[in-house]
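TA notes, week 10

Several of you asked for a full example with nothing omitted. So below is the full record: structure tokens for the whole chain, then the designed sequence directly under it. When grading your own attempts, check the secondary structure regions first.
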């Protein structure tokens, strides 16, 4: 008789362990799904924050432009310069400040920091960028002809 009781208790223990294992598996799947949703929401939040920051900077520059106070200074961040004008990246690339792997600059760096790190003179960069944003552009699409904007010539020796 005692054997039957022990056998029944063992089967009960096995049943409880099996149910606990199934519940554990379900909980792990729910945790995985929740983590996936959190990751997706975090990614969406980051994209929304970046978009909001770009819109804030665009509005800031628009207000400064309307007030006639828009000017690139040494403290202006590279990312802000890129938002100022469609051709700003081309101007910076002309001074070897971004545009290729060997002259990479961080969007969070100021112009002064980028110029120092890359061994460039700051004054010509400021003149070129301020000339760029000051020119209304005669094509109506926000671009300035190469004749209007003097960028440095780059000479390559092979």
């Amino acid at each position: 008789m005692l054997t039957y009781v022990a056998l029944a208790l063992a089967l009960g223990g096995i049943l409880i362990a099996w149910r606990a294992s199934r519940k554990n598996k379900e909980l792990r799947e729910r945790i995985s799904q929740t983590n996936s949703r959190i990751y997706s929401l975090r990614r969406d939040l980051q994209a929304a924050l970046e978009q909001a920051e770009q819109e804030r900077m665009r509005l800031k520059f628009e207000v400064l432009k309307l007030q006639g106070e828009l000017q690139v200074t040494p403290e202006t961040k590279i990312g802000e310069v890129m938002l100022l004008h469609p051709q700003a990246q081309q101007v910076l690339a002309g001074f070897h400040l971004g545009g290729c792997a060997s002259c990479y600059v961080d969007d969070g760096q100021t112009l002064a920091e980028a110029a120092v790190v890359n061994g460039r003179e700051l004054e010509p960069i400021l003149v070129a960028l301020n000339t760029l944003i000051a020119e209304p552009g005669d094509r109506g699409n926000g671009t300035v002809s190469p004749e209007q904007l003097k960028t440095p010539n780059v000479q390559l020796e092979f």
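The chain has two domains: 1-69, 71-158. Use that as a sanity check on your answer.
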